[in-house]
Amino acid sequence: MNNLGPFVWSIADQLRGVYKPHQYGSIVLPFTILRRLDALMASTRDEMRALAAKHTGGVLDAQMRRATGLSFYNTSKYDFARLLEDPDQLRENLIEYVTSFSSNIDVFEQFGFEQVIDVLDENNRLYLVVERFAGVNLHPSAISNAEMGDLYEHLIYKFAEASNEEAGEHYTPRDAIRLMVDLLFAEEQESLLGEGVVRTVYDPTAGTGGMLSVAEERLRERNPSARLTLYGQEINPQSYAICKSDMISKGQDIGNIRKGDTLIQDHFYRRTFDFCLSNPPYGVDWKAAEDFVKEEARTGKLGRFGAGLPSVSDGQMLFLQHLVSKMRPAHEGGGRAGIVLNGSPLFTGAAESGPSKIRQWLLEEDLVDAIIALPTDMFFNTGIATYVWVLDNAKTPERQGTVQLIDASGMWTKMRKGMGSKRREISVGQRDDIVSLYDAHEDGEQSKILSTDEFGYWTITVERPLLDDDGQIVRDRKGHPKPDAKKRDTENVPFTYGGNTYGADGKDATVEAYFAAEIAPHISDAWIDDKKTKVGYEIPFTRIFYKYVPPRPLEEIDRDLEAKVAKILTMLKSVEA
């Protein structure tokens, strides 16, 4: 991209006094998109005009695609050069140009572009802005599709920075995406190298399309003859517009990029895909979609959210379930998915809560392939710990019944210049190391292989008898001791306690062994209320990788303290002197 991003952004200098800095992006972005589309049509414009004079409707659409190879067209006589030839009619001609695109180009509506044109014209800025953009060469021969994606992301970042807005709400850093894509492709290395390979990729939180773009980029690097069809849905109007524009540049079917809230309406209902990718918002409530989600949850397995519902304050686990529903079924070859989540989905919620039930379903159905802990300060809008979940509904035999946990939290390189909360990145070499750990599928310092049963537990309720004033046990009519609510306690009993591998079905023997060894020797009058026993699942990632660090010897601490005290006394004496 070189200096193209700053140069395009510098065009915003023409907007001073008319717009405030936080509004610049709403003008720069649609003009950048328009200039890119203008450049893409440069070699076929005469052909487009000739076909438009002969055909209309669906016939015109088909003829245009066949003749130009583009998924869009424009029937206007104008381009950037011809617009500048008539300064007095620039406003009217530019509006006519923008409204002459094929109906599948709806991106300018998302920016309220006609109003932008009016405001610039009223303030004598329209010609200056059009002239500056006409001087930007965005032809594919000058700037590749990958570079165009980087340009969009640079502009989005600058726009978010000027707006005091979080850039991470719109896109995911490329180093994180490349890691996710490489992990997804890792299990299909051989099949992806075949001649004429065709695969589908879907992102339900597409943002500006970064994940889709990198997936295509990485596959083409491996196999230039491979074809990846990209699908996405995005709720933010401007992010949707940029994503769609980026897909146009790549020659993708732009009808595969849809606008809307994925939780409320799945625009790809009953469609499944080879690969799915997502970076949903963290800790964002789903109140707007609550009625729709709960209604769909009532349909059980017929809907997307039958496993359980998380707290309304955080919708991450809804997107987790949604991705599973979009993976190609195992009997059709299976699908793989990657999703970035914070730590909450690993452990939040007690036994039989919504989050626990979701984890139970994922693990008992053997859908979780691996979870990778990323470094902190990796994303633009948060410095907290994040994790990549890799899902697979058709695991290879050696991975079946297991989950691989990889601690990559220490594998990072400090950025020369931070961007928002992002101060660290994963280098190419570090990414290869992480993928190698995944490929090896072995126990080690940074990789743990656990059976799905090892994440399950029973929460048992331990009761003790109620005593009355004379110290005797209070009993019910049947002579059974009444429990004392004040002495009631709960314990979590792992499915694998005592080396058992029976899972949820081995409850009685495992719980009895736990009670006999851990409770009865210490509380002789205790018993378990079996009616209150609950099943829970959690993934205690941090505990599994915990390393005990012994405290410093007291002698060493004493020496340090004595040295500090001596230093302070010396300083005080110098002050007194």
Give the fraction of residues assigned to helices: 25-40%
Shape: globular
Low-pLDDT runs: none
* Biggest pleated sheet: 9 strands, mixed
For the largest sheet, list the strands in their spatial order.
3-2-1-4-5-7-6-8-11
**Gap between N and C termini, in Å?**
64 Å
The radius of gyration is 30 Å
User: What's the average pLDDT?
Assistant: 91
Structural class: alpha/beta
The overall strand count is: 15
User: What is the percentage of strand-forming residues?
Assistant: 5-15%
Q: State the helix count.
A: 22
Write the layout of secondary structure elements.
Blueprint: H1 4-10, H2 25-40, H3 45-54, H4 57-68, H5 80-83, H6 90-98, H7 107-110, H8 113-122, H9 126-134, H10 145-162, H11 174-186, H12 189-192, E1 198-203, H13 210-222, E2 227-234, H14 237-249, E3 257-259, E4 275-278, H15 290-297, H16 316-326, E5 336-342, H17 344-347, H18 354-364, E6 368-373, E7 386-392, E8 402-407, E9 413-419, E10 422-425, H19 428-440, E11 447-451, E12 456-463, E13 489-494, H20 507-519, E14 527-528, E15 534-537, H21 541-544, H22 554-576
Parallel strand pairs: 1-2, 1-4, 2-3, 4-5, 6-8
Antiparallel strand pairs: 5-7, 6-7, 8-11, 9-10, 12-13, 12-14, 12-15
Helix pairs in contact: 1-10, 2-10, 2-14, 3-4, 6-8, 11-13, 11-19
